[in-house]
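Consider this today:
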Amino acid sequence: MPSIQRTSDLIELIAERAITFALGGLAGLAVAGVLIYYRGETGMFVPLATVLIIISLPVTFLAIYEATKIRKVKAHEVLCPFCNFDNQLVETPDNDINCRNCNRMIPITDGKILPVDQVRCGFCNALNYFSEKTDVLLCEECNHEIPIAGDEGRPTKSMPSFYAVQDDDALYELVLVAHGHKTEELINVLQHMLALNRSHVKQILGELPAVLLTGINRKKAEMLKAQLSICDGLAEFHAVGEKTSV
């Protein structure tokens, strides 16, 4: 399912189109004005200036029309239960979305934001959050599994063997190597992941390979690598100071 577009991203796209049309239309009118001013005695440049005016005026009005669309962009507020940040989308989401501020997945079912609970890690005492949609809760600080208690006080979730936690104190850096055809989806994911605007993300995609994050733990690197792969982003991670890709 394609991700729902954020209000700020849609406004930025509309503004880019409006500015492009406006610059083209005004440039055409400016050139036409110069041609009319220097038309000479024969007026040989007047026909060309007329053609430019005929083309430039509709383009200028199109820029104005695009600009008016900004006021019509809808904003559906999705308040993050983790950090209380107001995420504004063009429509109400039916499934989980990524919070632009804290980068956590906001649990959503049928358009309703689910409540989250807090729990302290028994290993490092760090505060962690979970909802009824959480399958496995790993501490954000020490990466150990935190059992989620059921109604009878027993853990209702168990961690599969391939998710077995291994002590790894190394810090890693995440490198984006290449990307496929899902460019728009990848741009949206990178905007949320890196807290950058659209133009900066486009610049990163044009200068691959590029280091996205550094100084993160292995579990977070694996999670972000998997998230990028969904959008055809090929990423690698390796310990800081090493060059062996994973």
About this structure: Confidence is low (pLDDT under 50) at residues 151-155, 157-166. The domain at 172-239 is CATH 3.30.1390.10 (Ribosomal Protein L30; Chain: A,). The first strand starts at residue 76 and ends at 79.
